[in-house]
Amino acid sequence: MKKLTKEQYHILKEKGTEPPWSGKYVKFNKKGRYVCAACGNELFSSDTKFDSDCGWPSFYDAKKGAVQFKKDKSLFMNRTEVVCAKCGSHLGHIFDDGPKPTGKRFCINSLAMEFMA
Length: 117
Ligand SMILES: [Zn+2]
Fold this sequence. Notes:
With 117 residues, the chain is mainly beta. It has one helix at residues 6-14; strands at 33-36, 42-45, 49-50, 58-59, 67-72, 79-84, 90-95, 105-108, 113-116. The chain has one domain: Metal Binding Protein, Guanine Nucleotide Exchange Factor, Chain A, CATH 2.170.150.20. The longest helix is centred in the N-terminal third of the chain and has 9 residues, at 6-14.
């Protein structure tokens, strides 16, 4: 387990959410990969990142086997949580309004990831 900041711990371990537009990867278009901030598991490629205008980094697909999905009924909503398949940390949520080819929108906290060029 890597050393996490208080903010990172809140998101990854307590299922927190960073304020929209606050994350460093929202407007970020460099080529590379995104890994789990807690364990280094490779999660997303910059090739699947898109500008969703929701305030969080968005991807239309994840690396095969990198994430798992859990039903989240908190806050009286019916959402699907995205967690790291390796360490179980909370990353964000997935929605069905993404672009082709998957139609999915992975809405992920910047603080839950680390970018590697
Ligand atoms: Zn992880």
